[in-house]
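Now for a specimen:

…
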Amino acid sequence: MLIENKSSSYPEVKTRKRELCAPYNQLYASLKHNILKLMKNRIKHWRIALTLILVSLCLSCDNDKKVVLDDNNVIEIREQGSFTVGGEVIQSSGTFDPVAHGFFNPTNQNTEGQTLHGDHATVFYQIPTQAKKLPLVFWHGYGQSMRTWQTTPDGREGFQSIFLRKQYSIYLVDQPRRGQSGRSTKPLTLNANTDDQLWFGIFRLGVNNEFYPNVQFSKDPEALNQFYRQITPDTGPLDIELNIKSISTLFDKVGPSILVTHSHSGGQGWLTALRNENIKAIVSFEPGSNFVFPENEIPNSIPYFGGTLSARGVPLETFKKLTEIPIVIYYGDYIPKEKVIDNPGKEQWRAALEMAKKWTRVVNKYGGDVTLVHLPEKDIIGNTHFPMSDLNNKKIADLMNQWLETKNLN
C-alpha cells in the first residue's frame, strides 16, 4: 500500500502505477478496437471516432507525470488498523427484556440487565515497509487526543507521518475517557466553559490573544481556529491508575517499543515504565506532573503563581527501574528562570522544568540515563508547549531521531 501524504490525519491511500493503470489500459484497448471498427464505416462516423480518440488519449497511462506519485511524497505502508486495549464491563441489575426494553428512548432509556463496555484505550497504528525494530507509541497530553501527533493546526505533517518516513512503526493512543475512547463506565457532567484564552496562555502561545515574539506558531487565523478545536474533554473522571493500566496492556500487546509522551502523560509514562519492561525508552515532551522519586528523597513541593507542583514517592528498588532505560525530556521556549507574578501560564512551566531538573539529577545519580534538553539552550527558539506541531516540528523530530540513533534505538 502506498500513501500520498497531504498533511491530513488519514492520508489518501494510493496503489502502485501498474494497479492504477490496469483498468485504464483495458479500456484504452477496447476503445482502440471500436475506433478501428468505426473507421471501416467511413466518414459518417468520423465525429464518434474522433471523440473516442480524444477519450483514449486522456485515459492513456503513458504520461508518468499524470499518474505516478512523486516518490518524495509517498509513504509505503505494510499494515495499518485500529483496536482497543484494556477496559471494563459493568452490568445493571435486573433482567433485559428485548421486547419491553428493546426500543430506543434516549431521554429515559431502560438499562435493566444490560452491560456497558468502557474505560478502554483506542489505538490507531501504521507499520511501514522495512520498519525499524522498535515502534513508537505516542500518548497525548491533557485536553488532547491522538490528533496531537497526526497533523499540525496549520495543516502540515505531524509526527505520525514524519516518523513513518523515518521507517518507524507508529501507534497513536486515545487514553480512556478521551477522544475515541469516550465510553466511560462512570458519569461526568460536561460543562461548556469558555476557556480558549486560558489554554492560549498555559500552552504558551502568548497572552490573551497576542502571540509571543518569534513564536513557532502560524499567525494564520485558521491555524488558531484548528488549534482550539483539537481540544477535547474527558468523558468521565480522570483516573491515572486506569490510564496506566490501559497503556501497560498496550505494551503487552505490541511488545518492546519506545514511549513518546506529552505534558500530562509524561508523569503517567514514568509510572507505566515502572510496571512494564516492554518500554525500552521514553521521549517526553514537556512533562508537567507526577515526577517519581525514591520515597525517602521526595523534594519539596515547588510553589508557582496559581498552584503548587508536588512529586510522588515509590520504594527505591522500584524507582531504579527508571535507571534501566534511556530517557530524554524536551522543553520549549518562554519558560522563565525566576518566579513571575504577572504570567501564570509561564509560571506553571517554570515549576515543571525545575522539578524535571531535580528528577534528572536523582535518576542519573542511581546510574540512569536521562537527558534534559531546554530547546532555547540549543539556540532553538520560539517553541510552545507543542514542539511536535510547531512550525519547526521537523527540526524537533530530527533532534529526537538523532537521540534515538545515539542510543541505538532505531
Residues 6-18, 61-69 have pLDDT under 50 and may be disordered.
